[in-house]
Design brief:
Blueprint (H helix, E strand, L loop, with lengths): L13 H7 L5 H6 L8 E7 L2 H9 L5 E6 L1 H6 L8 E14 L13 E3 L6 E3 L5 H10 L2 H8 L4 E3 L11 H11 L7 H19 L5 E4 L5 E4 L6 E2 L1 E6 L5 H14 L3 E6 L2 H9 L10 E8 L7 H8 L17 H11 L6 H18 L2 E13 L19 H4 L6 E7 L22 H10 L4 E3 L6 E3 L2 E10 L5 E4 L4 E4 L5 E9 L12 H15 L11 H11 L2 E8 L2 E6 L7 H8 L7 H13 L8 E2 L7 E2 L5 H15 L6 H12 L8 H15 L9 E7 L4 E6 L11 H5 L2 E10 L3 E3 L4 E13 L3 E3 L5 E7 L5 E5 L2 E4 L4 E7 L1 H4 L5 E10 L7 E10 L45 E2 L41 E3 L1
Parallel strand pairs: 1-14, 2-14, 10-11, 10-12, 17-37, 23-24, 28-36
Antiparallel strand pairs: 1-26, 2-13, 3-12, 3-13, 4-5, 6-13, 7-8, 8-9, 12-38, 15-16, 17-20, 18-19, 20-22, 21-22, 25-26, 27-29, 29-30, 29-34, 31-32, 31-35, 33-34, 35-36
Amino acid sequence: MKSVFKYIASIILVIIALSVLPMLPLTAQAAEVKGPPLEDISFEVVTVEAHGVLGVAEGRYDVFMWSMPLSKIKETGVDVSKLKLIPTVSTLFALVFNPYSDDTPEGKWGVATDVDDGSKHFNPLALREVRYAINWLIDRQHIVNEILKGGANPMYAPVGPSHPAYPHIESVIKELGLTATGDEAKALKMIEEAISKAASELEKYGYTLRKGADGYWYFKAPGQDEEAVTLLFVIRPEDDRRQIGDYVAAQLEKAGIKVMRLYLERREAIIRAYFTDPKSLEWHIYTEGWVSIAEAPWIDADLAWYYGAWAGFLPSAVGWEYKNDTIEDLTLKLYQGKVKTAEEYWDISRVVTKMGIQEAIRVFISENLEYFVVSPEVTNLVYGRTTGLYGPWSFRAADIPGHKLRIVQYSAAGALFMSSWNPAPPYEGPSDIYGSNIWRYVRDYSGYWHPTTGIFTPMRVTWKVEYGEFVAPAAIIYDSAKDDWVPAKPVTATTKVTYNFKFGRFHSGRMMTLFDILFRYAWLAEWAHKDGPDDKWYHSEFEESWLPFEETMVGIEIINTTAIAVYGTYKHPVSPEETAAYYALWTAWPPEVVMAMEYCVLFKGPESGKSYGWYEGEAERWIDALSPEDSIDIKAALGIVGRGGYTPPHYRATKELAIRFPQVVPPDISEAASLAISFIEAHGHAAISNGPFYIDKYVPAEMYLELKAFRDPTYPFTPEYWQKKLIIRELKLEYLKVPSEGIAGMPITVEFSLKDVQTFPEPGEFPAKEVYAEVILFSPEGLKLYIAKPEIVEEGPPTKFKVTLPPAATMGLPTGTYSIEIRIGRLPGIYIIREARAIRLIGIVTTPTTPTTPTTPTTPTTPTTPTTPTTPVVGPTVTVVKTKTKTVVTTFTQVTPSVSVSTERVPEYTLTFVAAIIGFIVGLVPAVLLARRR
């Protein structure tokens, strides 16, 4: 749990609001209804997948909030024509390994000492060559066809074939020779050689590692009995991962490695794999499942989440930790915006992808093509192009007759959640998909990635992005060593983002102000720095999450009661929206609740006397604001906070800031605590936030939770707001004309047409003018030979494009079957449409003269920054997408957007599944990777 991405990531009963909030004039109350279209949403649990599908088909539920392959849905016998099937490609399956070995000469060859009993064992997964070989040992195509019934694509890296950025890393996969079917013989040879080499080396230190007559490897440490080399394989039994785990285990045993299969339900599996010290050797392999909950098209967050120790879930969040310094440095470089151009961004991304595959702490298996089952009664349902219903937009706009939505989730374990609800980074809330499905509607965000374009879109914050050189004499920054807000760093900022906030009340009834935003910043900074050996406000997880972000901060300028300017050094090489997302400060938790939970973590529960931790495994309890039991202690701690019995330095400093900056407006802490206590007494939990719904009722024993619409008049959005604001359009390729034959040295003309089809809020067709498009000629071996930019010849709709490859593009090429591919999208280097046609070229020479780089003078080797169809990029390659929500002041050329996706095997709706990654990088910006455990 070590991440800080740009990312990462309610309310009060009307009757309570009336009792604790000032009464408004009747005319004001009747003037405008606030909140979502739905009145309430209930969440229940089924323990069998088919029961969820049948429950929707039979009218007991409206939404089955669990995606499944179409084949499994049909197996239930339901008439799918009478249901809404919402597609998603946001889930993935992977294997994660425990590579622990001792930091000793023999440890280099796989010797691992159990930290609990001191016994020594041989861990074959400590050998990189063994881990890497598993890429060939498994037949991904077999898994896709036989286990997943065709409802998936083979996957080799943090982003799969449906991701719009996949073409940028596809060359790495080809270079390494990875294929869907694998190569069992090659893998067995690689593993045999690696372990044999280890056996030879370990003999020098008195260890015996031999292969027995039964074909299995045996290990003997000095002073210990001989034992079979055995891997503990944690396998999730409730879905297809059971069969996948059994298959992988059988393959490993072919390599002479015994496998103990541990079929563990989700919570026990999660704790063992992610929250147990790897040195205890309680597991070696785990069948992971991840869900992406954002459409962000950029992959820096995915790479850091799945390959970087500083950002993601590598073994482990507790105890020993795997780390590759080069991967750490490169993922940080991408994250912190230390790349100048799109070309550099993609070049580094390819390097990290290659290293990650070779290090093989994770071996990816599949990206899954699945569907949510929804009642046709549900209307205005906005869903993500790849995330489906896993994003935050769907139930902000959806409605149903009666305005009461019934959602059911699936859990074989018969539990609703498997993680705690607390404000600690990186998630700033629950980290599992089950809790996240609810939390997304209990909280609001500064902004979030648009469900189809993937562009970061304003929610509670709007912005203006400026690039240049900025001096900020009035800016301030929190200094944890001084426990105070001090003048900003004396450095020149290269980025300035001005933010305007749409404040409203928290669910408890307390009005938000700038104080809440600045408190969140100070709180994270305080906990991320160890200011002395006895600093109790410090946690290493906060440090790993926060410091990479803090290093790019220069300062914060307070403008007025609802606006600030953030100065820093981060700059996304292509997208100003991503720059805005990176620095967007916001909070989902009221400071009084944060301080109450903090008090319990530092001093134990005032009522129970139990110890609490921010993370799993740190104390008796993982502090959880949703837990009725924990809320008793949180309520008691709120009383202490309200009486002034606990005043942490970050609170005091931010409160005193109001003396210099009256725009900050701190709350009356006694009143704020009292309102929070009243909320807990009314609802039985302390999960107080600021989104369109609040948690009215939670009954753990019945696995039941109910959300109510937040109708407070200060809430900024009406029921119709997102129904009108969210415009959903999809680029459709109408036709593609490529000649089937040609002569080398002669021109080749390519034509295609596009429509921009709107499906929400009203259907319609529009010209596809603001796109990036390129036409690429590939050699028979798959090398790029030439890149051309098509021009619009007819506006449409459909919009017609045409390009002619000049004679120089094919001059001297030998006879062979080449291919011409078109790539189209709304963002530069991000491809929504990607389609190829074969062309037979007749050459005039017999010696191949295939160049290794494109011959177009102005096109880089890897064309990641295509320009508009008619305007080439001049000078720097940074592009800026203009929107009505911000202004960008720059000195570089501004061009219009681009995008693309493979249509060979992947349904058109598939786009990106960022993974993962992640919650809310500092509670400041929603996670771009936003991945949740499944």
